[in-house]
Amino acid sequence: MKTRFALILAASAAALALLSCSRDISPVRASQQECSLTVNVGVPSSRAVIPSGNTDDMAVNSVQVFVYDSGGALEKSSGKVVGGSEITLSISPGEKTVWVLVNAPETTGAASLDAFPVMSSALSDNSLTSLVMSGSGTVSVSGNSSITVLVSHIAAKIVLDQVTRHFTNTYYSGIPMTLKGIYMSNVAADYGYTGTGPSEWICKQGVLSDPVDCAALLADMSLDAPLNEGETYSVQHTFYVYPNPVQNDSDATTWCPRKTRLVLKCDYNGRDCYYPVTIPGEAAGGSGTIERNKVYHISGLTLTRPGSTSTDSKDPEVSSDVNCTFSVTVSNWDDDISYTENF
Fold this sequence. Notes:
Elements (H helix, E strand, L loop, with lengths): L1 H19 L14 E8 L19 E7 L5 E4 L3 E2 L3 E6 L2 E9 L17 E3 L10 E9 L3 E6 L1 E2 L2 E5 L2 E3 L11 E9 L1 E2 L1 E3 L8 E2 L12 H4 E2 L4 E2 L5 E2 L3 E5 L19 E8 L2 E8 L16 E4 L2 E3 L40
Parallel strand pairs: 1-9, 11-23, 12-24
Antiparallel strand pairs: 1-5, 2-3, 2-4, 2-6, 6-8, 7-15, 8-10, 11-20, 12-19, 13-17, 13-18, 13-21, 14-16, 21-22
């Protein structure tokens, strides 16, 4: 018993000594248990792929994962992982928010969830076989856990199936016309991962830079296809643009944000003319906006009149005057009437 009592006294003395020194010693926290979190990148939520069977724009080439704790602080990031769609990270238990970026340039991520909205993607970060995608999810981690995060494209896809010439004024139907190119105008150059923006625009008012910005995504200017009256040009063209939230359109000559357009450039009897088609058009709800991960599919575009001299407006209409060469020929004298007179 004495030994036990002595031990109790010794422990009590030691405790008192620790209390007396508490001002000088910082408390030591027990290390938290580490858990593994496996993040799987889910199939993009839209599988509207055109043409049928072509999945190039669905490819997952690289992945970045960002894990935020319950307070919104960045706890762990994976860096850029190439060639895989499953990543395992070692993190502490608790409620987590997980953000995933696919095919995006490498980034350290936002320091907090509150700062994530300022992160944005540039249209120039995309290619035809590597389109940027993003997605997020939440998970409660209490042991080794996993989460599947569905990602979706930042870009929208614009598809044009065919162009038909059918002028309502038959006087113009014989005038020769050639389709020279198809391209997108008034295109958002960037867009936030959480839906903010855009802050910059390219191909404004249908004016293309030289070289064309994001040409592989926005333009096909190598065409030389005759558009004769009643005939159809039936080569499909696909373009990729970033979301455009503008609801009130404009055709002002001074730039301001406006709706995105698909523009046909034609040669009309030696004169350049344009057909700027607003996306989405009236048939698809012209007051709508371009949203991410959606396909805007124009199954047929019929040209019913000569195009415009403007790259951003339907008017003024290009002149339909045709060249007419006049020549003057002095005809020979009429037959010589020979006769005699008597007075």
